[in-house]
Amino acid sequence: MSAEAGADRLQHSRAVLLGIDIGTSSSKGVLVDATGTIVARASRPHETSHPHPGWVEHDAESVWWADFLELTRELLPAAEGYELAGLGVSGIGPVLLPADGSGKPLRPAILYGVDTRATEEIDELTDELGAEEILRRGGSALSSQAVGPKIRWLAKNEPDVYRRTEMLLMCSSYLVHRLTGRYVLDHHSASQCDPIYDLRARDWSSEWAERVAPGLSLPDLAWPTEVVGRVGAEAAAETGLPEGLPVTAGTVDAWAEATSVGVRAPGDVMLMYGTTMFFVEVLDEVTPHPVLWGTAGAFPDTYTLAAGMATSGAVTAWLRELVDGDFAELIAEAGDVPAGSRGLLLLPYFAGERTPISDPSARGVFAGLTLEHGRAELYRAALEGISFGVRHNLEAMGQAGGSARRLVAVGGGTQGGLWTQIVSDITGKEQQIPAETVGAAYGNALLAGVGTGVAQDPDNWNPIVDVVRPNTENTERYDNYYRHYRDLYESTTRIAHFLAAEQHAADERN
Predict the structure, then answer these.
(1) Where does the chain hold its CATH 3.30.420.40 domain(s)?
(2) Cis amide linkage into residue 45, ω under 30° from 0
(3) 104: helix, strand or coil
(4) 66 has pLDDT over 50
């Protein structure tokens, strides 16, 4: 080893990387050294706003930026004795945050697929541009996940805000702008701005952008690992970060989370257990599918196939609050209930559903309730219902060309063991559990480490430490339940849509 190489290795051994992620219901941050070892971690809960049925919003200043400041200030003291070498950020996405020319938000951010306000605009743009052509160019059909219909909704319903809009930001790009002054978006996030990004050209589709977002300037494009700027003097004073600190482009949280657990090779699938359930599978080539999302990957020249449920952990959190139960107690009680929850089925569509049914008017259903059922059966049925949704999505991804060669589980829902076991039992598939399941914040540190060249052996940062294997006896039992789960949605769709319309009407009257 040369003296120069040895000095460089010594310098990197003292380096730490900061990763910050803004999630749906909480934000997390980590300091990680060059080998992937976590030096410090922190988290902050926050509220999500639901001003109307189907609307889900965050205030960028009081949620995103406030959480970023608190997490950074808590973590920085742990960096003493190290060299802070890079910063990576991510956030919920895709989202729409209209901002003026200085980057000041003009309204709360409209969140990803859980916000279903733009249903009319989805239909309008699909009719205008053609469903097949949208799918061919962008890799995804228009749905509540797409940003384009929400831009049109904004122009139609809040024209004054639209007239003042000069920047279209997402969570990560908002943070990057606050820190560096750059107006830039990563390719993956841009690929979820359907229909204004051309997936194969890896660029904005200028013709369609002018039709969907007329008069608006679109951000520069970069890959999540690219250093796009450095912390400016004003941001340094406000955050305590060193001026000149390299900042990478960032991305949507689920893709940072997939990176955090080594989901990078074709056939690798991440199952993200969180407030919502999300799936990311790496592919050799984009595979457009009408009910899934074909997107750019987190690394240059990669593609991914993605799917997402509108609620998962949000349902169990709702139930815990409803029955006034402690998480550990409910997990233990539900673990004593046999597979099938003593004859209960749940449709987990409490906020509509994204993939694979793409139905914003779907609603939650408990079927089979009797006076003999208690909170233990209800909680297990909730875990099972969400897990049936996981199987439904994995089957759709297989039909789209995914192989699901390797499943890696990550997120808060992996704690306790019961939920992951139920998923393996229902799907019949093994799941690998990595050493660190802290999530997207860890992935951001890794992306920053790759972008700055600081990360040592990034492919082995987060080794697998456990494998969840299916119980074949339970799998056979769940096969029958799964068939009825699928039938239950078909049988109750008309009623659910009527009730959803009633809920919207009641809100308008109020």
Answers:
(1) 11-255, 263-435+471-510
(2) no
(3) coil
(4) yes
Higher model confidence: residue 360 or residue 341?
341
User: Which residue in 109, 234, 238 sits closest to 172, CA to CA?
Assistant: 109
Q: Is the pLDDT of residue 78 over 70?
A: yes
Confidence of residue 4 (pLDDT cuts 50, 70, 90): very low
CB-based burial of residue 214 (10 Å sphere; 0-12 exposed, 13-18 middle, 19+ buried)?
A: exposed
Here the tokens at position 158 are: 């809040």
Q: Name the phi and psi angles at 277, rounded to 5.
A: -100, 135
How far CA 59 is from CA of 25, 163, 234, in Å, comes to 12, 20, 21
263-435+471-510 belongs to which CATH class? alpha beta
**H helix or E strand, kind and range, residue 58:** strand 57-58
* Amino acid making up residue 397: M
**Beta strand pairing status for 345-347 and 303-308?**
unpaired
Q: Are 455 and 446 in contact (CB under 8 A)?
A: yes
Q: What is the pLDDT of residue 13?
A: 63
The amino acid occupying position 51 is P
Distance, CA of 137 to CA of 134 (rounded, Å): 5
Side chain identity, residue 295: T
DSSP label at 243? T
As given in the structure block, the two tokens for residue 259 are 């990176």
Q: Return the beta strands (E) in 301-434 as ranges.
A: 303-308, 345-347, 365-367, 406-410, 431-434
Tokens 């009825």, residue located: 484
Helices and strands in the chain: count of H runs, count of E runs: 17, 24
Written as one letter, the residue type at 293 is W
List, as one string, the DSSP characters of 264-320: -STTEEEEEESSSEEEEEEESS---BTTSEEEE-SSTT-EEEEEE-S-SHHHHHHHH
Which residues are within 8 A (CB) of 8 and not within 5 positions of it... i.e. 6 or more apart? none
Query: How much is the pLDDT for 288?
Result: 86
pLDDT at residue 11 is higher than 90: no
Quote the radius of gyration of the chain (alpha carbons, Å).
Answer: 22
Is the separation of the CB atoms in 173 and 184 below 8 Å?
yes
User: Which tens digit of pLDDT belongs to each residue from 296-314?
Assistant: 999 988 899 999 999 999 9
Tokens of 264: 């990078």
CATH fit for domain 11-255, picks 3.20.20.70, 3.30.1490.20, 3.40.50.300, 3.30.420.40: 3.30.420.40
Query: Please, what is the Cα angle at 171 between 167 and 174, to 5 degrees?
Result: 45
**Angstrom distance (rounded) from CA 270 to CA 407:** 6
In this prediction, residue 188 has a pLDDT band, given cuts at 50, 70 and 90, of very high
- pLDDT recorded at residue 9: 44
